[in-house]
Design a protein that fits this description.
There is one protein chain. By secondary structure, this protein is α+β, with helices and mostly antiparallel strands. The protein has ten helices and 17 strands. Strand 14 and strand 15 (337-346) form a beta hairpin.
Length: 395
């Protein structure tokens, strides 16, 4: 086995967060312990009926229709989706009964379970923020948003092992070795991104949260224009929550760890600002896009524009991107029911597990308030097409 291959494998272990093995010294024998019980194999998606979906009849599914049509632009080419996506063109989108009947005709709900057998999980929120910025550095605009660096190497690991579908290794070449890319702290200290500045913004903590959200808009004060900065790439390190970091340090309680509280802590602790931000080694790079329609969200991982309050990010290892998902949770920081048909049109580094969703609230300050406070429990049902069929008329 070559040293280059070992280096690549080591990088994969670091980037993908696999656990390290413990080596036992030859002169010491490990104590004999009984083998742990083998976990039961759980089917993540278990078919059920629409009658089993709490609140299905009360949701105005017309509000999900534009997001569904967006998904169909991609899904129509996939097996099983031709009939529903073709028929959708003839559905009266203003008729709530017709839309509901369409979903009930073409789809089978599947209750989502975590691999451990539980059916409940965390539902957080995200949004598209608006920052103030400029093309050139000056005055309050001292924090850069960067383009992806030229030496960032991305390897699709599915080409090596099909079981690693969706996993990517990011690194850089040093000599004849592939090594992990620079962490957030290393990027900030080294100046390695000099010359890759896209725009300059006026608030470091807002720039940090922009990376967490994945995309946003920047109001360029020198050009009197609003542009979108969309996700371009990432440095390969797993996302680590700075809210959790503050909780672990005893600075905030778990109940207080909202985006709003984190911002307040950041402002009142200037000497520890770098420490806080560097607790998350992940770093996101951006590309610029025109805002052609201010009402539409940025494109998610599925490649279609996100629809406010009808798009979610999921873990694509368990939930196919593009599909309808009925979610049962509660409004941000409350017990008020939120039961809604959504579309799984995005993914994210912090979205890990089957019953796990990030709810897209839309653009601007109000959406940001809701997203920052959302940390609810929820259950999910995925709507999958019935077996491939010929042309069907919705009754």
């Amino acid at each position: 086995m070559s040293f280059k291959y070992l280096s690549l494998l080591a990088s994969a272990i670091i980037v993908l967060g696999m656990s390290a093995c413990t080596t036992i010294a030859p002169e010491k024998k490990p104590p004999v312990t009984p083998a742990p019980p083998v976990a039961k194999s759980v089917e993540v998606l278990q078919p059920t009926t629409f009658a089993a979906l709490p609140g299905w009849e009360s949701d105005d599914v017309r509000d999900a229709w534009p997001a569904f049509v967006n998904s169909c632009d991609v899904l129509i080419k996939k097996v099983g989706w031709t009939a529903p996506c073709t028929t959708a063109r003839d559905i009266d989108a203003s008729d709530v009964k017709a839309v509901r009947r369409f979903f009930e005709t073409f789809f089978v709900p599947h209750h989502v379970f975590n691999p451990d057998g539980s059916d409940s999980g965390l539902v957080t929120g995200y949004y598209e923020p608006l920052l103030r910025g400029a093309r050139k550095r000056g005055g309050p605009f001292q924090t850069p948003l960067y383009r992806a660096p030229d030496d960032l190497l991305t390897i699709d690991l599915a080409s090596v092992d099909p079981d690693l579908k969706g996993k990517r290794l990011r690194g850089r070449v040093v000599g004849k070795k592939v090594v992990p890319y620079l962490s957030r702290a290393e990027l900030e200290q080294s100046g390695a991104l000099s010359g890759k500045e896209l725009v300059w913004v006026d608030d470091p903590i807002e720039a940090f949260f922009l990376q967490v959200q994945g995309s946003g808009r920047v109001q360029l004060v020198d050009e009197k224009e609003i542009v979108r900065v969309a996700y371009a790439d990432q440095n390969g390190y797993p996302y680590k929550s700075i809210g959790r970091y503050l909780v672990d340090k005893g600075e905030l309680t778990l109940d207080q760890a909202s985006a709003q509280s984190i911002r307040a802590w950041y402002v009142t602790h200037p000497a520890r600002q770098k420490e806080l931000l560097n607790a998350n080694p992940s770093y996101v790079f951006f590309k610029e896009e025109k805002v052609s329609n201010p009402k539409k969200g940025p494109k998610g991982a599925f490649g279609v524009p996100l629809t406010p309050e009808r798009s979610i990010a999921v873990d694509a290892q368990f939930i196919p991107l593009g599909v309808p998902v009925f979610i049962v949770t509660t409004q941000p920081n409350s017990n008020v029911a939120l039961r809604r048909l959504m579309l799984a049109q995005d993914s994210g580094g912090a979205i890990r597990n089957a019953v796990r969703a990030d709810f897209f609230w839309g653009f601007g300050a109000e959406a940001g308030e809701k997203a920052g406070k959302m940390k609810q429990q929820g259950t999910m049902w995925v709507l999958l097409p019935k077996m491939p069929m010929g042309p069907t008329t919705v009754p």
